[in-house]
Amino acid sequence: MAHIDPPKTRRHTGPLVVLIAIAIGLAVLFRDSLSFEALAENREALLAYRDAHYGLSVAIFIAAYTSIVAFSLPGATIATLTGGFLFATFPGAVFNIIGATTGACLLFLAARWGLGDWLSAKMETGSARIQRIKRGLDNNQWSMLFLMRLAPVVPFFVANLLPALLGVPFSRFVVSTAVGIIPGAVIYTSVGAGLGQVFEAGETPDLGVIFEPHILLPILGLCALAILPIFLNSRSKQDL
To answer: What is the pLDDT of residue 28?
Structure first.
């Protein structure tokens, strides 16, 4: 009897299904550990371990941050604050960016191996309207990628999955992620760097700081710069 291969779509969804299953399991297992309260309760032990094993602490932290992002676990904000609390704004921001970028890349690749190729093929052979939408995305990929990273209204996991499903080149995704998350990473890492005083006062950190005018306006300015090429590209096509 001739061997019949399973449908490609079924084979391709394997990595994505595994990733989702692991994410659910980890979210249930560590639901009480990835919280501000847990960080406050264990702060002295964390600081003592960092002082005794700095290099290992950095490696463990980056690996943990990578896992949180790769599996889309709740707690990425707490992880960013922890990076600032343990390692100060700098190099804490660098460690946060490395962990977030690495985790985003792993999620991107899992989605790409799972559904990206199949969806890209569907879009290439789809209706004329679908092909026009895809061409529009292709023509403005850099701008759209940076805009998704800079705009605080776009969930991080969405900005990781959509590019994979729309056929964005991996190298372009890596660069736009690493550069685009710098403003937010530095802001929240700096908040984490001040957690010592927050803990002593028995308060909680102000995570709404990113919406304060002196912080939000520069970010909106960067968003405007990201949108500008899209506007100019649209105007140039209208003039033709």
So the answer is: 53
